């Protein structure tokens, strides 16, 4: 009985516990529990992070997901709006902020070839917000056509142009290849010019305006020129090449006046300085001319000869030396102007002074005075020197001839032997004979000098004994007749002194 009561109580307690737990659970299920959400997520940017060559008008897009847990009953959290922050990656650039309802934003007039940074913040209905990562993109570079350029002045092939003129041309930037406002301009021009016939025209100047003043061009010269236009985006265009020709120099004739020596002046030194004065002709065309020097030809000739090659100079004087003494000269000057015109002076004359010299110097050399025992064949020699010039100019006098006087002592003075050399050979003189001689030297200026008179004696004759040889009868010959003709052969002795002479003859036999 007790066991039954205890079992009944245990069962009752268990039932009560189960009923109470069930009621507790039912009560909890009927009471609402507050919900919590995650922050929103922002992803899938367009253009993608790091994109390049983006257009200048661009729609930025992205996707945003509310932070609802999975299986969350409605109502759930929603995205209410967005903040877009756009910043040009350039120091000092301002940040642009856009308040948006939709996950996209149209951006216009972006800078070319620039890096942009952008961030999106999403706001959720439960008050939470979240930022996207920082994304970047870079815009493309604007494309333009090449610039246009055309030459204007001087016209192609123009002639008779001034040596100082303004080269003129027209240029325009290239058209933009996209439908955006033009942002390029012509930044500079490179002017190329050279004389026709030279190599490729070199760059002469760089300017910013479509014209250029050029001066100092050569007269009467053909030139080639063209211009290269450079655009701010670096593109260039080259004009066609044109030609023009400058006007020739136009001047009056130059003037020329002789100054010295005076016309007809005499007793001039053989070194003469000719002096004159030359002036350019007046300029006839407008441009100021370069002060190019005049050039001169000095013509000089002896009075009886034609003009030869002139002396050329750019100075108004010219010294000429080594002129002939005692000679009349004629001279004139021709001046030449850079434009090719010339002028000729009048002709003048002058006469150089005559040369004066000391008499020539003459000395007998061989044989010495009073020398004896001389050979009968002998060479007389002497030495003559022209007299020095006494008027200090370069020597032009010279020995023209000699007169040799040669005779036996006791005879009268014979006619001279005319010679041009300073020696004379004599042959077949008499033996043991005294001779006398002297020389007179004649100088080109007419002066003469006479040497002292010298004498010498030739040597006496000297011979070897004659030679003789018996011919018949022979030595020791027998049976010789009682009447016999003896015969022999004899030869005169040879000369013992060396001079040549007539061969000796036999005078007799003994």
Low-pLDDT residue spans: none
Kindly provide the name of the CATH class of the largest domain.
Answer: Mainly Beta
Strand content: over 45%
Biggest sheet record: 6 strands, mixed
Overall pLDDT: 81
> Which fold name fills CATH's third level, the topology of the largest domain?
Immunoglobulin-like
Question: How helical, in percent, are the residues?
Answer: under 10%
Please provide the count of β strands: 38
| Count of discrete alpha- or pi-helical segments spanning 4 or more residues | 1
* Class derived from helix and strand content: mainly beta
- How large is the radius of gyration? 67 Å
Q: CATH superfamily assignment of the largest domain?
A: Immunoglobulins
CATH architecture descriptor of the largest domain:
Sandwich
From the N-terminal CA to the C-terminal CA, the straight-line distance is 234 Å
Specify the overall morphology: elongated
How many domain modules? 5
Can you put this structure into words, describing what you see?
- The protein has five domains: 38-139, Immunoglobulins (Immunoglobulin-like, Sandwich); 148-246, Sandwich (Immunoglobulin-like); 255-352, Immunoglobulins (Immunoglobulin-like), CATH 2.60.40.10; 361-458, Immunoglobulin-like, CATH 2.60.40; 463-510, no CATH class.
- The chain is mainly β.
- The strands form nine sheets. Strands 2, 4, 5, 7, 8 and 9 form a six-stranded mixed beta sheet that branches.
- The protein starts with a helix and ends in a 19-residue tail after the last strand.
- Strand 25 and strand 26 form a beta hairpin.
- It has one helix at 2-29; strands at 38-46, 51-54, 58-67, 79-88, 95-100, 104-107, 115-124, 129-131, 135-139, 148-153, 158-161, 165-172, 186-195, 202-207, 211-214, 222-231, 236-238, 242-246, 255-260, 265-268, 272-279, 295-302, 311-313, 317-320, 328-336, 342-344, 348-352, 361-366, 371-374, 378-385, 399-408, 417-419, 423-426, 434-443, 448-450, 454-458, 467-472, 487-491.
- The protein is built from one helix and 38 strands.
């Amino acid at each position: 009985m007790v066991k039954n009561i205890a079992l009944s109580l245990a069962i009752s307690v268990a039932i009560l516990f189960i009923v109470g737990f069930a009621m507790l659970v039912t009560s909890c299920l009927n009471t609402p529990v507050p919900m919590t959400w995650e922050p929103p997520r922002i992803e899938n940017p367009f253009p993608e992070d790091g994109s390049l060559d983006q257009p200048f008008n661009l729609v930025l897009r992205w996707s945003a997901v509310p932070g609802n847990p999975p299986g969350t009953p409605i109502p759930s959290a929603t995205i209410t709006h967005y903040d877009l922050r756009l910043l040009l990656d350039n120091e000092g650039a301002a940040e642009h902020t856009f308040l948006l309802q939709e996950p996209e934003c149209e951006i216009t007039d972006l800078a070319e070839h620039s890096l942009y940074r952008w961030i999106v913040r999403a706001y959720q209905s439960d008050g939470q917000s979240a930022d996207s990562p920082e994304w970047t993109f870079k815009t493309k570079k604007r494309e333009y056509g090449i610039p246009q350029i055309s030459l204007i002045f001087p016209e192609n092939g123009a002639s008779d142009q001034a040596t100082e003129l303004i080269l003129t041309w027209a240029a325009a930037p290239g058209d933009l290849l996209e439908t955006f406002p033009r942002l390029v301009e012509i930044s500079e021009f490179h002017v190329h010019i050279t004389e026709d016939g030279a190599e490729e025209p070199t760059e002469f100047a760089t300017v910013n305006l479509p014209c250029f003043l050029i001066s100092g061009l050569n007269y009467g010269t053909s030139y080639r020129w063209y211009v290269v236009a450079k655009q701010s985006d670096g593109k260039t265009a080259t004009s066609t090449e044109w030609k023009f020709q400058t006007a020739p120099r136009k001047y009056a004739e130059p003037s020329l006046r002789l100054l010295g020596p005076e016309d007809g002046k005499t007793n001039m030194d053989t070194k003469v300085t000719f002096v004159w004065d030359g002036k350019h002709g007046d300029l006839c065309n407008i441009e100021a001319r370069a002060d190019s020097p005049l050039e001169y030809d000095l013509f000089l000739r002896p009075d009886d000869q034609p003009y030869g090659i002139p002396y050329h100079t750019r100075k108004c004087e010219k010294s000429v030396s080594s002129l002939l003494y005692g000679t009349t000269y004629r001279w004139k000057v021709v001046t030449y102007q850079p434009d090719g015109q010339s002028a000729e002076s009048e002709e003048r004359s002058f006469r150089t002074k005559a040369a004066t010299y000391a008499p020539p110097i003459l000395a007998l050399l061989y044989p010495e005075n009073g020398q004896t025992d001389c050979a009968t064949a002998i060479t007389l020699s002497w030495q003559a020197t022209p007299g020095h010039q006494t008027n200090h100019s370069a020597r032009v006098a010279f020995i023209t001839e000699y007169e040799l006087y040669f005779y036996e002592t006791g005879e009268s003075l014979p006619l001279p032997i005319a010679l041009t050399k300073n020696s004379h050979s004599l042959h077949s003189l008499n033996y043991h004979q005294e001779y006398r001689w002297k020389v007179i030297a004649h100088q080109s200026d007419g002066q003469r000098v006479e040497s002292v008179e010298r004498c010498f004696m030739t040597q006496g004759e000297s011979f070897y004994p004659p030679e003789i040889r018996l011919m018949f009868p022979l030595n020791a010959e027998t049976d010789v007749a009682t009447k016999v003709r003896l015969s022999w052969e004899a030869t005169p002795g040879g000369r013992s002194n060396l001079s040549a002479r007539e061969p000796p003859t036999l005078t007799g036999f003994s």
